[in-house]
Amino acid sequence: MENLRYRWNLMSSFDRFIAIQVLVFLVISILGVIGLPIDRWLVLSSSLTTLLFQPWSLITYSFIHADLWHLLFNMLWLYTASRYFLTLFDTARLFTVYFLGVFFAGLTFLFSYSLFLTSSAYLVGSSAGVMAVLIFIATYTPNQPIRIFIFNIKLWQLGAFFVVIDLLQLTSGVNFGGRLAHLVGAGIGYFMASQLLKGVEIADGLQNYFRQGFRFNFTRKKPSFKVYKNKNRTSTEPLSDQEKIDSILDKISASGYESLSAEEKEYLFRKGQK
Length: 274
Hints:
single chain, 274 residues, Rhomboid-like fold, two-stranded antiparallel ribbon
């Protein structure tokens, strides 16, 4: 027990969030086996009437996954995207992007089925939030390299791949609600990042709410030094650059992105392109 508590304390806020997603899946699976299917109170139904009695489902559906592979796929990409996200922004912004993606994807799913589709359906999974985070960082730092197995690609290429896949499957009618949610999440991520590049802060109030506590510790972990090696020597990035990055990120954590000067925003953007 002490070892688990120690490991929990070492985890970042968002890593804890991912761990909670896994724990929720395990608990719901166990309860389902013993005849207590509580997931039906947490999934998002396409019925507006059901929503009136389960308004929390606009958020809780993202904690429910269809099966183990659904959970693992989402958590893998959420973890990967969050690593790149947190090198430039704090955890509060990450939660804001994620949950806005989840919320608006849920609303779109609900009203599209209620107004245009006659069939009933349920929405589950964190994919909309994952897509929001992934597309946000792919839009903000499109040329950031990422290694997928043995291939080196750029973030914008990874984001574009997932969007194209969802568009193709959306037209096929297979898992229409899920694919629609993915695309809405992607749209939220793109919109928030593109506005931020223009110096426009979206949902600053929600970010401040997360920064003030919620349930986790939202202190940003400072990025570690990058080490470059060649045959003759090992060196780190210039300390002055690292200190400047840390200072800017601390300023964002304390006062928000809009508190940065034009020079600071440009400096941070250029560093994010490397």
